[in-house]
Amino acid sequence: MNNPLFYAKILLFGEYGIIEDSQGLTLPYSFYKGSLKFSDLSTEFEKKSNESLKKYSDYLLNLDVPNGFEINVEDFQKDIAKGLFFESTIPQGYGVGSSGALVAAIFEKYSVEKFPAELISKDQLKSLKVVFGILESYFHGKSSGIDPLICYMNLPILIENKESVDKVSIPAEHIGKGAIFLIDSGSVGETGPMVQIFFEKMKTEGFRKTMKEEFIRYNNACIDAFLKKEMTPFFKNLKSLSVWAYEHFKPMIPESIYKIWKKGLDTNAYYLKLCGSGGGGYILGFTKDYAKAEKMLKGFDKEVIYRF
Fold first, then answer.
1. Which residues form the GHMP kinase C-terminal domain (predicted)?
2. Which of 71, 106, 108, 251 sits at a 20 to 30 Å CA gap from 288?
């Protein structure tokens, strides 16, 4: 069996904003990966994964998928009976797309029509996003389809608005002093409750106004400056975004992170932002001087994901 690997994803910018039509920028993250495999299901993990796939395949049987994007559920179920499971190192509840990689792997293997990533047009991307949203809604109740799309394409994706996405090139890495990195908050986050808090906040006019006039403006400006590699406006808008999140996304920031979030803002040594929905899992860090930031963040597990 051909076992293509599906990588985790990182939403660099756009958490919560993409719900309100802001831009988003997301990249594949090859440190974590998953693939469909066969086994005799001798371990507890393999057994559980196989059972989960069985439940998911039952869900797919009654699913209405747009024409041209059908899944061969019969073949999927035959393989499940032969010991199919999803081997994955992607942590769940960390905001790096564990269900997205699974959905992408199943679609790649069992979609009736094939869609090679390198040949996909912008219109097909739009349609695939819708299909992946339907397929992933089993795991989250409601899904934008972005996570599986990133995992499937294995390319950076610019979310232009709610409807439109496009492939994008990010500036090539080079080993400079600066870095984008992940900090492990030490706890698992659950997407559902965090999104619920966000929608509660959106009921107040003041929050809706600041979301539209400030958050989305800073968020989109960060994406624009990053893609153009204009680091001075990038860090200026990043600080505004981090300040805004500290004030308005407090419930989504894990308690273990409060102090270091503020310390970054006070010293300008680094800036933090949510990675996905927050509540736990990873937090994203940005710095012009990683060696300095690393010393200041002693005691926290960190992973560098991009150097500049």
1. 253-300
2. 251
